[in-house]
Amino acid sequence: MKSRTKPESGPHPFSGPEPDAPDAATGRSRFSHWFENVFWYHYKWYLIISIAVLATAAFFIHDALMRTTPDFQFVVVSNNFVSNGSIAELTDLASEVFRDAGSGRPSDSLGHGLHLSAEGQFGIAAYSKLATMLLDDDMRFFIFDADLLEHFFNEPDGFYDLGALGFRAVEGKPWLADVSGLPLMERIGLSGMTCFAAIQVPHRLDAGALSPDPGHLAFLNAIFNAQ
Asked: What is the residue-averaged pLDDT of the chain?
């Protein structure tokens, strides 16, 4: 009987690296070459513009979702220094006047302080903002010093007759409530000045047909009575 001879040992035919498989470094190199010389070369500006558009859209969507409309807004405008911070007490008073009837919590009220005599671009911005607010139906309650009367508030058209509603008004100009010298006016920066309040009629309504919102009248009454 012939003896079987043991075959010589050697590497398994399926062992070892596959000669045609690229290693990781080669794969990264190929991707880098494709990205830099193909994709980035041909589509760089498309990518940059797309990112910019998406970022802008995200900003506006976030702003729209987070924005809330205050329950009440008013404007204090003067050639003296006035800012949102300087009228904080007046804003707090508005929040109390417009207190939520259901929950009893103070309302979300917002006061805008405009210093028209501010230097440079700040004064220009204040003038532009006031002009915009005079056209906005949501901005109807104005407090201002006498220097601004002739340019912005000297005509009765568009303002309610406050004298007919029992408020201390300027003789011959009943749409102007005289708030000069009131303790609250002194504290917010209109010290020693002749100043007035006026309530603008929404542009879609007729001034002679309707009375102001009761909340606006309650706020004006609170200003007169604040100590």
From this structure: 78
What is the number of domains present in the chain?
Answer: 1
Q: Using one digit for the tens of pLDDT, what is the confidence trace for 64-76? A: 444 456 778 899 9
Check: pTM over 0.85? Answer yes or no. Answer: no
Sign of CA dihedral 165, 162, 196, 107: positive
Starting from the edge strand earliest in sequence, which strands make up the sheet with 169-170, in order?
109-115, 72-78, 141-145, 195-199, 173-178, 169-170
Q: Is the pLDDT of residue 117 over 60?
A: yes
Residue 97 lies in domain: 72-225
Taking CA 121 as the corner, what is the angle to CA 116 and CA 126, rounded to the nearest 5 degrees?
30
* Residue 66 forms part of a structural domain: no
**Quick check: is 208 in a domain?**
yes
Selection from 176, 165, 166 nearest residue 142 by Cα: 176
